[in-house]
Structure formats: structure tokens, C-alpha cells
Amino acid sequence: MTKPKILITGANGQIGRVLTEELRKVYGTEAVLATDIAKLPVTIEPFEFLDILNAQRLKEIVEDHQITQIYHLAAILSANGEWNPIKTWNINLNGLLSILELAREKSLDKVFFPSTIMVFGNTTPRIDTPQDVPLLPSTVYGMSKATGELWCNYYHNRYGVDVRSLRYPGIIGWQSLPAGGTTDYAVEIFHAALKEGKYECFLEEDTKLPMMYMDDAIKATIDLMRVDKKNLTIRYGYNLAAMSFSPKEIAAEIRKHIPQFEITYKPDFRQAIAKTWSESIDDSQSREDWQWKPSFDLSTMTVDMLHHLRQTIL
Ligand code: SER
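Above: inputs. Below: predicted complex with serine.
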């Protein structure tokens, strides 16, 4: 097998920043090309600007760098997506279609498409949500990801494109901040606890949602992309789970380490979005097909988050 040459879109996003670094550890810095529409103050080369709607530029980059795999992370998230539904649809779906077309035309080895628990909605059982359920997402972000999953499945079945996908829960990490998601509170709360000793939460105290520590999300992504394709039975998004908690529960966990920490609640429009999602996810197909197993729960994640943030933001 030839050495992979990887392109990441949305490399400066919450997951992209960490995934780029991890993939560079695995495959070497030069083997992983980071792309994004925005440049960070400190960017590790190799890096190219890329607006995901510029299909011509995308093609040039794939050709110039002899790309063999794409991790397509560029997207607008659930809460921000509601401010401009048509733009969100355009970026989230048309970006993916350009990537799938390119994968077909150039016979790329593999494509990764991040889906989300936000594909679920009011027609989905909310506890231990099974892999295959009716999907009626409430946000344009969820609609674009549910439709994206169908396109991934189609490109695999029709053209043999080796596309792999995970339905991520809310992702929590110390390395980067999310931008415009409904689960963002679970990252903000750690920063606020350490810096201010208090946090005003935009969800109600009992809103329980599926979540995952960044280390587990990155491991799941790399493991799924490395497993032998004959093990895979799903080419839309695999359900993926690690832990579920409410704002009240994570606040209580943080208080074990910062006893004076205070949380108040001022729910906004994101509460209505969160209300339609699952509380917990059945990820048995991932466990069976590619031996998925998370390492972090609420308590071990809280210890690790506070440890790293104390060293980086204080
Ligand atoms: N967790 C992110 C959000 O809340 C993306 O799936 O939008």
C-alpha cells in the first residue's frame, strides 16, 4: 500500500485542530495537508486556504498535493446554522458533494464525513437511540448532515467510494473551542469555572445530552479510518457514544475540584434545539464492527480537562 497523503478541510475548527496534529503524529507532518477558510495566528505548515464552495480550487489542491484521503470537517454547526439556513445548507451539503465527486473521479482511497447525533429529532427514541431510526432533524445543520449521510451511502453503493462516517456526540476538549454549536456549553463551563468561578448556562439544568471527550473522538476517527473495509457494515453515520450528562451533573462534577463554582441558568434558543435530541445513544454496531470502546467518562474527563486548562489558560 502506498503511503497516504491526507487533506483535512476545516482544519482550524474544534475537531480539525486536534485531528490534524494527531494525524501528523501517525503519518508524518508532510503527509497531512491542513486547509481552512480562516488562518490561525499560529498555523503549522503545510497549510492551504480553501473555501469549500470553490470546487475548482479543491480539485487543484488534490491534484497538486497528490491527495489520497480526505477528512472533510468544514461545516457550520447547529446553533450558528439557524442564523442563515440557506448558507448553511450550501456549505454543509455542496461542500460534501464536491468531495464525493472528486473521490469518485480521482479514485481516492478514503473519505471521512463527520455526522452528528443532531440527525435525530422528535421521531427518534430519546434513550439509547438505535442505529437505524426515523430521522426528522430540527435544525438545518441536522438536515444537512442527515442528507449528507445519504449521499455518502449512495456514493459507496453506486460508485464504490470508500467513505466512512461517525455520528459524533457533543465534543469536549481543552485544545480548542467550538464555534456555534448547541453543546458548546460543556466546553465553556470549564473555562468559566477556572477563570471566573461561575458560569451562566444557555441550556436548562436537566437537559441531558450525549457527549464525548476529544481524545476518544480522535481515536474513534482514526480507528474507523484504519479498519479493514470488509469489517464495515454501515456507510452512512455510525452511532458513537461515551457519556451523557446534564448541565447540573457536569457542574456538580466540576464542584468536586472547584468547590466554590456556581452555575446559573438562562436558557436561550439553543434549549429548543437541544430538546429534540437524544439523551443517550446505542453504539453497539460500532463496538461490533470496529471494536469501538471509549476511555473517558464524566469524572475522568473532568480531571483531565481541568489539569490541561490550568496549564494553558491560567
Ligand atoms: N456538537 C455540535 C453542535 O452542537 C455539532 O454537532 O452543533
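The chain has two domains: 6-170+212-239, 174-210+242-280+295-312.
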